[in-house]
Design brief:
The complex is a heterodimer of chains A (about 475) and B (about 350).
Chain A: H1 3-10, E1 19-20, H2 23-26, E2 43-45, H3 50-63, E3 67-70, E4 87-90, E5 97-101, E6 106-109, H4 115-122, E7 127-128, H5 141-147, H6 154-157, E8 164-170, E9 176-180, H7 191-195, E10 204-211, E11 213-214, E12 218-226, H8 229-241, E13 248-253, H9 254-264, E14 274-282, H10 284-300, E15 305-308, H11 312-323, H12 325-332, E16 335-338, E17 341-342, H13 348-362, E18 366-371, E19 376-383, H14 390-407, H15 426-429, H16 432-445, H17 460-469
Parallel strand pairs in A: 2-4, 3-4
Antiparallel strand pairs in A: 1-2, 5-6, 6-10, 7-11, 8-9, 8-10, 12-14, 12-15, 13-14, 13-18, 16-19, 17-19, 18-19
Helix pairs in contact in A: 8-10, 9-11, 9-12, 13-14
Chain B: H1 7-20, E1 24-27, E2 42-45, E3 52-56, E4 61-65, H2 70-79, E5 82-83, H3 97-103, H4 110-113, H5 116-119, E6 120-127, E7 132-136, H6 148-152, E8 160-168, E9 170-171, E10 175-182, H7 185-196, E11 202-207, E12 211-218, H8 220-230, E13 233-234, H9 238-246, E14 259-263, E15 276-280, E16 285-289, H10 294-303, E17 307-312, H11 327-340
Parallel strand pairs in B: 1-2
Antiparallel strand pairs in B: 3-4, 4-8, 5-9, 6-7, 6-8, 10-12, 10-13, 11-12, 11-15, 14-16, 14-17, 15-16
Classes of the chains: A alpha+beta (about 475), B alpha+beta (about 350).
């Protein structure tokens, strides 16, 4: 790759201020929210029109230069990690809300618009955008689509894929695709679904039409304490069996509770082994009925304490503790590593027990934060990157947790994406034919493999190398491939 | 039908078809043969690949083989006070889960809880290379790899044979009533658009050109308080009316003229095409019985940000059923077809003539 030629041609597409190539200017882009992985790109381009994006992609296609798209860079799996020989395409200048259509409950936004900014803008119409990843104050909608982001309200309101209606996407050869429509479905294959969560591998998102929901009349949260985490897990099943789908249903274990309480003084009982936060929303009547029922179920499930937030301030305080759980854990250890597996809920006791045993084995503490309603587990492994070998031990421990999730019928990533972080674990979850199918899908959109290369879907050779190190259930994976 | 896994037999058939380059037409309960373009190729019957594999009410997940009767799935869920949230139409008692998912068909509840595709968590498929492969799983949140399960939903069998499907299910609502109000078309649509912006527990809506029907589902208290706020009269035959609309047994659908399905922006004003109209999904779904030309209907649907399907064409050999795709999207469809079914074995031409 000729950097001078690339720069010269890029400078004909965007003004000089939108093109960064000096090392000190590239530094802020070297990583995303997963800072353990860093790489400087060849150049950073910050276009502000769709035509510029098209021209940049056409150029990269012609010169065969890799392209990594980036929103706010808050992702937790290294999906926006730059390619050292590639262009880092920042979409942050696309920050316009183009239209709000309260009649049809949609908003049309550019990809660089922040998640929370959408809900703020549509609030005067009594509407909001439901998916609320904990980074919602900073993360962009383009990144949310690329990662199919979730949040604490997924069980009732779904993920990003359930809450968008149309995408405008530019493929690597510069085609502008309009996917979906203004109705509730569109002609042909569900390309909206294949694009959502594709981690920047299939196209660059330049416009998103999101669905909006009416703000519920009322939301109320109940906090329940348990002296045994298994009982807390059973309580979750009991609530759902009673026919209630809470808006949010979160669990935290003792270490997470204590860290959060020390940090934000949420009013959590620090002697509890686990707490559940159960939020119900809807009409005033519905919320009252559900609170009564949920309180009864929690008590019957053996909760040692059941508290309904007495007012909006206390409700916000209960949530503040949960939403601050990650940084709170960050205060009690020099570094932490956040995992993101999903498991069938009934496997919770077994999985927590195994994680606890692994924690002892690796001599690394773990705090557990759990989207209990939908089985999405976030074990936070505490470590110190300055201690020699500790990051490597942490990664190995993390890999075992993900393998455990797959073994019990779950998945290696519930909402953070594969990125570079879980690329090896993809070899655990999928076999050769399945990975080959993924590569075939990728080629249908990107025949030269230039969009975000090395992410999300591992090559079969990579899996062969990984498999040589990790023999799964006594079987050698990918036996048909040569080992290097 | 006896639960059994015949996926290996199906695999043999597919490999044979690949070798001999014979196209296959995938069949389940034959309840939706009318839908889409003509099915060509030797019939491959998947209805014996049936049976519920796992169902755990507290996990809100059911996994079944694609040939399982839809009625068995819905009955099993009902026994546990749960339901398929997308309220799929059957069109015949023989309807299978696989056909429902392959067509991505959803009923009255769709505008409020989501479509079939929204509840698909995972699937096992047989692709056009004769490989049995699995995607997604039985958990609510899963972002590992591309979302193949949803891509398969609504593919009309053109990408592969569905073998097993995992779905998210939901509890049945505690209470349900249907209200009816007399309105003209403009006022009915305006009312639907207004209601959508308020947090009412709506679960279905229909306007038949004369009366507006609104179904409310939720807790006793929520239904009662919303009823008061919305107004209108309570319909006695709550379940029957929605069953008739979902199964197209309402008088509106009794016709020999072409039936069109327009999926458009919900706030689209009444479309001026000669024919009879029936509205669902807050105005986002519009059924049209009309002899108007395909061009007129498709142009109107496109103008309203949507698309039009010639849903029932009454055995007339019909070349264009689905809305034509722009060239660049058609190209992506052809490449995806190639990625799953490189020999063009499955349901050739069922969706579009080009693949």
């Amino acid at each position: 790759m000729d950097k001078i030629q690339l720069l010269s041609e890029l400078s004909q597409i965007v003004p000089s201020g939108a093109l960064l190539h000096q090392q000190e200017d590239l530094r802020p882009y070297e990583c995303d929210g997963l800072s353990a992985y860093r790489e400087l790109p060849l150049v950073v381009v910050l276009p502000n029109t769709i035509d510029q994006v098209r021209a940049i992609l056409q150029l990269c296609y012609r010169l065969e230069v890799p392209v990594v798209a980036r929103g706010a860079g808050t992702g937790l799996s290294g999906g926006a990690l730059p390619h050292k020989n590639g262009v880092l395409l920042s979409l942050v200048k696309f920050k316009q809300i183009l239209a709000i259509n309260p009649q049809r409950c949609t908003a049309v936004v550019q990809p660089g618009v922040r998640n929370l900014a959408i809900s703020e803008a549509v609030k005067p119409y009594g509407l909001y955008y439901a998916p609320d990843p904990s980074s919602q104050i900073a993360c962009t909608i383009g990144g949310n689509v690329a990662e199919n982001s979730g949040g604490v309200h997924c069980l009732k309101y779904g993920l990003t894929v359930h809450n968008i209606q149309q995408l405008k996407v530019i493929t690597i050869d510069g085609e502008l695709l309009t996917i979906g429509g203004n109705g509730l479905d569109s002609a042909g294959f569900d390309l909206l679904a294949i694009m959502t969560g594709s981690e920047g591998m299939l196209g660059v998102i330049v416009e998103v039409t999101v669905k909006l929901l009416p703000i519920p009349d009322r939301a109320q949260v109940i906090l329940a304490a348990f002296d045994d985490i298994v009982k807390a897990g059973e309580a979750v099943g009991n609530i759902i069996s009673a026919g209630i789908i809470p808006a949010g249903l979160e669990m935290m274990d003792k270490l997470a509770i204590q860290a959060a309480e020390d940090f934000v003084h949420a009013g959590y009982p620090t002697d509890a082994e686990a707490i559940l936060l159960c939020e119900v929303d809807g009409s005033n009547a519905e919320v009252s009925e559900h609170i009564l029922k949920v309180r009864g179920i929690l008590t019957q499930s053996g909760a040692t304490q059941v508290r309904t937030a007495k007012d909006e301030a206390e409700r916000m305080s209960f949530w503040k503790g949960r939403k601050a759980a990650f940084p709170a854990v960050g205060r009690i250890a020099p570094d932490y590593y956040c995992m993101d597996g999903t498991i069938p809920r009934k496997q919770l006791p077994h999985v927590l027990k195994t994680i606890s045993n692994l924690s002892t084995e690796y001599n690394l503490p773990v705090a557990n934060v759990f989207h209990a309603g939908d089985g999405n587990l976030h074990p936070l492994i505490l470590y110190d990157a300055n201690k020699r070998g500790e990051l490597e031990r942490t990664e190995e421990f993390g890999g075992k947790i993900l393998q455990l999730c797959v073994d019990v019928g779950g998945t290696i990533t519930g909402e953070h994406g594969v990125g570079v972080e879980k690329i090896n674990q993809m070899c655990v979850q999928f076999n050769t034919e399945e990975l080959t199918q993924f590569h075939a899908i990728k080629s249908a959109f990107d025949d030269k493999g230039l969009l975000n290369p090395g992410k999300a879907v591992p090559t079969l050779h990579r899996c062969a190398e990984f498999g040589a190190m990790h023999v799964h259930k006594g079987k050698l994976p990918f036996p048909e491939l040569e080992r290097f | 039908m006896t639960p059994q896994d015949i996926s290996l037999d199906l695999q043999v058939r597919v490999n044979h078809a690949i070798e001999n380059k014979t196209p296959l037409s995938i069949r389940g309960g034959n309840s939706k043969l009318f839908y889409g373009r003509e099915a060509v190729g030797d019939a491959i019957d998947i209805s014996q690949n049936c049976g519920i594999i796992s169902y755990e009410p507290t996990e809100l997940v059911i996994t079944a083989r694609a040939g399982t009767a839809l009625s068995l799935i819905e009955q099993t869920l009902a026994d546990n006070n749960q339901m398929l949230p997308f309220e799929p139409p059957y069109y015949a008692e023989t309807a299978t889960l696989g056909g429902t998912i392959a067509c991505n068909l959803s009923g009255p509840r769709r505008a409020y809880t989501g479509a079939a595709r929204d509840f698909v968590l995972g699937c096992k498929i047989l692709n056009g290379r004769g490989e049995i492969i699995s995607f997604g799983g039985e958990v609510m949140k899963n972002v590992a790899g591309y979302d193949v399960s949803r891509l398969m939903t609504g593919d009309l069998g053109t990408l592969g044979i569905l073998l097993e499907i995992s779905l998210k299910v939901l509890p049945r609502p505690e209470a349900e009533i249907t209200l009816t109000l007399e309105r003209d078309t403009e006022k009915a649509l305006a009312k639907l658009n207004r209601l959508a912006q308020v947090d009412f527990p709506l679960s279905a809506s229909c306007y038949d050109g004369d009366r507006l029907f609104l179904r409310l589902s939720g807790t006793e208290g929520a239904v009662k308080s919303s009823k008061k706020a919305i107004g209108g009269e309570v319909v006695k035959s709550n379940q029957l009316i929605w069953h008739k609309i979902k199964e197209q047994q309402h008088g509106f659908f009794f016709t020999k003229k072409p039936l069109w399905r327009l999926s458009v922006a919900a706030d689209t004003p009444p479309i001026n095409i000669d024919g009879k109209w029936l509205y669902e999904w807050n105005g986002a779904l519009r059924w049209l019985v009309s002899n108007a030309s395909a061009e007129i209907i498709r142009t109107a649907a496109e103008k309203a940000g949507g698309h039009a399907i010639r849903y029932r064409h009454h055995d007339q050999n019909c070349a264009d059923v689905f809305h034509p795709l722009p060239t660049n999207l058609l190209g992506i469809h052809q490449k995806l077809k190639q990625a799953f079914d490189p020999h063009g074995i499955f349901n050739r031409g069922r969706m579009y003539a080009e693949f």
